[in-house]
Here is the input.
Amino acid sequence: MKNKITELIANNIEGLSKDEIFSLIEIPPKPELGDFAFPCFRLAKTMHKAPQMIASDIKEKIGDVDFIDRIDVQGAYLNFFANKNIYIKNMVDAALEENFGGSTVGNGKTICIDYSSPNVAKNFHVGHLRTTIIGNSLYKIFSKLGYKVVRINHLGDWGTQFGKLIVAYKAWGNEDAVKKDGVAELMKLYVKFHEEAEKKPELNDEARAWFNRMENGDQEALDIWQWFKDISIVEYKRTYDLLGMDFDYYLGESFYRDKTDAIVAKLKSANLLMESDGANIVNLDDYDMAPCLILKNDGSSIYATRDLAAVFYRKETYDFSKCLYVTGQEQKLHFAQVFKVVELLGNEWAKDELIHIPYGLVSLEGAKLSTRSGNIIYAEDILLEAVAKIKDIIEEKNPDIEDKEETAKKIGVGAVIFNDLYNQRIKDVSFKWEKLLNFDGETGPYVQYTYARCASILRKLDGFCVDTDIDYNVLDDGDALALLKEISRFPKVVADAAEKYEPSVVARFAVDVAQAFNKFYNSNRINVDDEVVRKARATVVYITKNTIKNAMLLLGIECPERM
Ligand code: ARG
Here is the structure.
């Protein structure tokens, strides 16, 4: 309808493009002011006339159109009252389409998303939970828009810390303990190394020597490192399984270790490399940034060097149109430096194609999370605790439900994901069980509950099947219309979320639809005797159910049919 009105205005004025008109059209705050409003202030400037006059002129010119019942001039505004029958039909038809909400804008284009990327031999903590959840949602959103998305887990699996860990393992570790406690044991060894190195600084030299052996391909060193890595990945995968998330590639920092020499050579021949205290850097003074360290004074490469290698590898391998990096905001400078260096190497595309997507912190105050040894919080424990708490609620309220385990998992995990995505990603996420597990707030469980309610209504209507043979006139009450208007925003919502790299736009939409549905449901009985009314209302329920399901899937959340 908005497109049609845009078209109508465009045909009757001059000086504004269709895109401009489209973006000027507003949805009035009250239904009495019509379904769409077009302000004439912009035109007043070019036409040198009072906006009220312009509005009246346009109204005059438009005359009668079948899809508009009435046009009111209110001050500088043209208020359009859509023909409800046509308007509703358009919205229902669109919502029934297979890929409603999606589009094909991304067809033929590839987006790489670098996310999650925990550090081997360290626990998968709450910060990594955020990058995983946000990255996965961006993957779903861009896929919905037709992009090919490559999901990359850039594991932190290389660096001097592994030399330390090998020293510690050889001195104080034992195989059984590592096999039994995995990452927790490796973290203990790492802490122990630092305690001991305080007293015996020569341990640091030993650690460096072990890392050098790794860099030189020494089998013993690499075998131990690989073992640590395998153990860590097994644990990370348990968390990914719980979340129902996956990657196309686990290509950690170690993958680029034989690709950093080429980067150094490139930088040298571009005259970008400078010596500074024995290290090699790229000076970024001109861009108000600290220098980008490329080689340490012992000649070893670092995090940034491997990130530079990764940019070029990905560009060549996937020919991305964008590469997104989802990490905490503390890495802002790091990415700004890396992207600048890529650009300085003669790659203008770095400016628009390499994008850092930062997010805020997780504050756990009041969450009372159980912790493993050393008071460390594991993402896995948070998820398991959410599931356990939901299971208690189910036992109490609906103990006879089938698939109790599966349902509790979908709700518990979904609640954590939703809590993470509901606010703008740059804001800190607070973690309060009472709030995020509440079935009656702006939460995952609330949206899922609304979905299950739709499912239950439809189950009880025997013989309901979807088709477009509906009498749209019977949906002409305020709440049905408000709900349909809400639902019809879906394509715009997905496009906006992609443009801003902001899953919260989708999360808020899901809540808006759920709220609009519950209002509609309070004022409209669905299972009425009148077959025509029943069918029309049931179709609205059906559309709501599908839209909620698909919006939640974009967040990485599944909706149970019963709860
Ligand atoms: N491993 C890093 C961390 O835990 C995140 C890596 C992000 N990706 C990248 N290409 N640097 O902080």
Summary: The longest strand covers residues 68-74. The mean pLDDT is 94.
